[in-house]
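Technical appendix A lists one of the benchmark inputs used to test multi-chain prediction within the project. The record comprises two sequence entries:
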Amino acid sequence: MEGRQEAGKENKPSSTSVDPQGDSSLQVEISDAVSERDKVKFTVQTKSCLPHFAQTEFSVVRQHEEFIWLHDAYVENEEYAGLIIPPAPPRPDFEASREKLQKLGEGDSSITREEFAKMKQELEAEYLAIFKKTVAMHEVFLQRLAAHPTLRRDHNFFVFLEYGQDLSVRGKNRKELLGGFLRNIVKSADEALITSMSGLKEVDDFFEHERTFLLEYHTRIRDACLRADRVMQSHKCLADDYIPMSAALSSLGTQEVNQLKTSFLKLAELFERLRKLEGRVASDEDLKLSDMLRYYMRDSQAAKDLLYRRLRALADYENANKALDKARTRNREVRTAESNQQLCCRRFERLSDSAKQELMDFKSRRVSSFRKNLIELAELELKHAKASTLLLRNTLVALKGEP
Amino acid sequence: MPVLKVAQTCYEGDGNKSARVFHRQHSKRAVREAPLAQSSGRAKMAAEREPPPLGDGKPTDFEELEDGEDLFTSTVSTLESSPSSPEPASLPAEDVSTNSNGRKPAEVVLDDDREDLFAEATEEVSLDSPEREPILSSEPSPAVTPVTPTTLIAPRMESKSISAPVIFDRSREEIEEEANGDVFDIEIGVSDPEKVGDGMNAYMAYRVTTKTSLSMFSKSEFSVKRRFSDFLGLHSKLASKYLHVGYIVPPAPEKSIVGMTKVKVGKEDSSSTEFVEKRRAALERYLQRTVKHPTLLQDPDLRQFLESSELPRAVNTQALSGAGILRMVNKAADAVNKMTIKMNESDAWFEEKQQQFENLDQQLRKLHASVEALVCHRKELSANTAAFAKSAAMLGNSEDHTALSRALSQLAEVEEKIDQLHQEQAFADFYMFSELLSDYIRLIAAVKGVFDHRMKCWQKWEDAQITLLKKRETEAKMMVANKPDKIQQAKNEIREWEAKVQQGERDFEQISKTIRKEVGRFEAKRVKDFKTVIIKYLESLVQTQQQLIKYWEAFLPEAKAIA
């Protein structure tokens, strides 16, 4: 199934706002995307006047795995330990959509040709919507990196943007996936261990508060996201129900010989239009609500990861302190212990400072994003409700006006 | 027949005259048919009445009236003077009520016969032709309230009288009413379901309230308690009386063993309350439809159902009873018979209509299935919205930015209200749209049944003709063999079967006529029903959207207030 996306800034379903920080020295966007059998190819276009790059405007073609590689590179880089690494875009998943299209193709002989055409249209629209979303998510990832003063200067980032050839980054094989999975487990075990460690006291109220806040927030936003998804699905189901209803009313209308003929036909038309409106309600809720919640679920996870790293640094610092004390008592390798401790201390303080800034940015980003999306959601809901009312009223007038 | 010719010529003239011509015919008929009718009642009636003088006294016409004057002469004539005629009609009420319970085939003939008097008369002047209507509608005085044969059973009809199978002497008003279909001043409500008894013998009792200004009821407002099997019993009685002569008797709501068991067992959950409500609404619609049927409204069983405080328990309606199984078997036998009857359809109208109803049935079923899916998904949407509202509220609580926190709480409230809205809309989807469709699917089954009865009626006539032929052959054989006693017997049998053939033909024509009228009435009602419900349903959708607008408009400033 082929799909192309000419992504201009207007038609992007941007559920997150990326502050350009007024600096247009590095602009990244996904100007095109092609969906092939089982992968999506994104055309990443960069416009920059930075001296580092060979040209001012250039593009490369990247696949999802290469985005993941970039993300992991950031995460593993010690230098960025004190920063919130923008969450990686989710893998493009057309499975569900493809399956539905296939099932439709296999054919249910009881549906008419018009119904079949409409359902096919619906599924194709769904496919297109998923496609657009995946493009948007990949784009937002890159744009956040480009906007961040520190992250944008990363060497790997430049390579990603500029290197014309394939980065030869293969997808993770099973061993690596398993490894990643285990690493996560270790991390959370470690975290649990650190926090329960006696003597490890959070000195900073700010971080104490942030920790409790983020833990709860992350769980709840994940919940809200799942449920918003279900609401959106129900809306879609409802919209799809109008297809057979409209078809049956159409047949009834054509068969009737009395006054009900026009009534049924008008009703069939009405339900067809309501279907489209209902579908739009579903997709708007998806974009403005579900997607936003999903993004901040991931972002809050990234923030949690940052806190973990800081906590780890604190634990290391504590350990270094203990080691220094021990060394001093034994009067052995004091120098190394001292330098180690100082390293840990500096690291910890560096992390704390940047983490504080990052977390405050996270909050303001979150607030402004929610604001924008909630306003847009309300406005769209109003728009659709008003359109539905108008449609219904017109039909009522037409029906009542008949003898 | 000379009389008929006169009838025809008189017909073009003024209505009154033609009415009188009919009297003559009827009276003659009354005499001839009396022995066949086995109705002492009718003869008694006729004998007890003095024919009051006609208003404008045309003695010549009257002289031609024969002795066995029937009710109608007198009543029609008195109508020109004063509407006192209906009183005596109460006499036959008792006769008929004894007839109505436990009807046997013989009495079927009786009923048909009464109606047949007029049927034949009107047939021969091609009553069914469209020209008929305008002639009648130019009827001068709307005060003429015709008393039709079936009013024998119903005394004291109000001026808004019901038209019966006989179109004779209908006023314009009545024809308009026929077109409108439900100007009868009677409203039925079914309410207050309450559980009576315990365990598996428990049942729900419903209050049936009637509000009416019709004088055939003793009070203008009254109520009784009835249980579901009573309704089934009523339908069973009405069906046995009227279905086979071509009346579309509205079907009763369906039994549901599962649903009722839950209620009996005492589960006080929402699904049993929903079930009871669904049933209550269905019973109400069933009664409303039944009383709006002009002929059925006259039926004493219906009146007894609505009025009397005690009703004999209808036992044969039990789900797994012997009678129930017998009925199932009979239905199956009927279905087989239907397939084997090959009828020579002389009237294209019937074939056309049958096809139309078949198509309608199919499409309504499809629509009904899709509306049921809609109801289901809307309920799901409501549940999911409620769940989302809760998690949005939780999120709002966690959120440490005050303005955003407040906005999220507001969002949660909006979503909760929307969930309520969806629930109400699902309710409307179901009770307005879905139930209307399922009612009509079952009504159409009744219509199909009536067409089937016509086929059976034809078959009976056919069979009589075949038998007559055989009897004639037998007679011829006997004549050749010269067996005088057998010849006599054959002649007797021939006479008997000739009468049966005639009866068969009459029955067939009667049922055909009744069906035509019933279908006309049914279609008019259907159009009205659907239009009304569609409009109501769309209005409910408008309501929902308007509420949505209100809620989101209230939310918008909250979202904008996030700083």
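Chain B touches chain A through 56 residues (CB under 8 Å). Confidence is low (pLDDT under 50) at residues 1-182 of chain B. Comparable benchmark entries are summarised in Table A2.
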